[in-house]
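--- STAGE predict ---
source: upstream dedup step, 1 unique chain passed
mode: sequence only
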Amino acid sequence: MNKNRLLTLLRLYITLLLIFVTQKVVFMLFNMGLAGGAPFGQCLLALWHGLRLDSVTACYLLLLPALVLLVSCFVRSLPLRRVLRPYYILVAVVVAAIFVVDVVLYSFWGAKFDANDLIYAAKPKDMLASLPWWAAVLGVLAVGIVAWLYCHLLLRSTPSLPPLYPLSTPSLPPPRGPRWSTLLALPVAALLFVGIRGGLSDSTANPSYAYFSEYPFCNHSALNPTFNMVHSLFKSQDLGREFDLRDDAEVATILDGAFGADGAIADTLLRVQRPDILLIIWESGGSSMVDNDSVGPCLQAIAAEGIAFTNCFANNFRTDRGLVSIVGGWPGLPTTSLMKRTDLCRRLPSLAQSLRDQGYSTAFSYGGDIDFTNMRLYFLEAGFDNVRGSEAFPSSWYTSAWGVPDHLMLSASNLVPQRRPFFSAVLTLSSHEPWDVPMRRLVDTRCNAFAYTDSCIGAFVDSLRRTPLWDSLLVVIVPDHGVAGNGIASSSDPRAARVPLVWTGGAVREPRRIEAFMAQSDIAATLLAQLGIDASRFPYSRNVLAPSYPARPQFAMHCFKNGCNLITPTGVATYDCVNRSLVAVSDSSASPASRQAFVEAMLQHVYRTTADLAVRR
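--- STAGE serialize ---
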């Protein structure tokens, strides 16, 4: 692959970038009425922040041209334009169609066009119901014009090149010396691989790369529509039909009384009506690991002086899923991660959004790659004004495998916003494999890592006590999910589901132990009820301190990959989502059939409710 062919690849790459940047400009101009007060400077930044995914998309589209250019080194008089023309036509039509539909439908739906909207393709009448007839006609014409323009630009960027090794006679081999130039194909392939991956960071390319602003319009403008469509093809599934197991009337009967908004409280746990709130989410800090004086002495001391919820269970087994349960009050799903569903992130309820509506400033901090599992996108869509990852902190702090170690992350200067009242959340990271922490107190490396994070949380809380902020501060400590260990072999083990939940701070009225049976998803409604804030937007979050709560069915649903545990005060029922059956029951208070009915009713109801959020209206 010689210089001319490398220049051809570069021209194609630049042409594709210019196409994608122009798409952003047109998108913003066409939909400026939906900017929601976004400053002009933020709109301009969308062009910059979108370049990373533009580059990823361009690298994907360059794979076939790069292969053809390599073949042209050996094939005499290969007509590059003629060979690549069908591919360019296909690319031009697909990219143009996605772009035009995205621009037009955004003005009606206020959301990006993705694979979940392709369900309407089977019923074009329903898809076009939101559009006047003239808009549909103009859209078809626009696709044709834009596709012709894109194809023309790509062809102009592809000159006719002579073969790299001209052959005087077919029987003679090409010269040996120039053949070494084909070794350039190796670094080119490596560059394309890195470009497709989105760089060398821990996270692979995902829509979160484009998200940077508290204004959704700016984030949507930055997001490459072609990448978003293709990415969503692999994340999309018909959630509404995932668990279609029972009659709707039967489901309603089984779940009668299980949920429902009840903001009443028998008494208040707080002495401040509108406290500042600091949420510490402890990576993997399940009770099986940290509820003892050896690993978690600081947590035990904090719990003794604050409010300890002694029967709290994780909704799921992974960070991305547990965060949605904590912040969004949403149950875990055993077959999908809602954080990776860009069409759902903005539509899920959010504790941050509810508090922001009441005048709270909101912030989320993480010392690692904030784009991992789509976190940046989710938290910005969830109503956090300021979302920070490792790039927001000094590079000298990045000393562990995952990022900034917990003793540096957990400091008041990092996590306390200037405007009050505030809701600030932080996700720790040191208590995670490879258990690399700057402390050696315990022999077992895993236990030592958890002990280190425990000491960091203890030191952080102690430092907060010495500030004027303490008197009006509520600190909530909860893990993102449980953990295997100490005799528990798997994250699917129901014993791994138990997690500590502790409230502390000067805003707490008095030490308490609360034995109400609950899940992480119940934190939102319980906290909002204490603040006197309506929680009706959280259909699955229960206020466990409501006088009516003891009369409700007492349970927690803990999901793992393709299965879930129904945990009750009297036992556990484990359900296999593949075989659609119970695989283990240790609950003598109810029949296996009734437990299976409850699990299936719960799954069917949650999946259908989640699917309804994705419906464009």
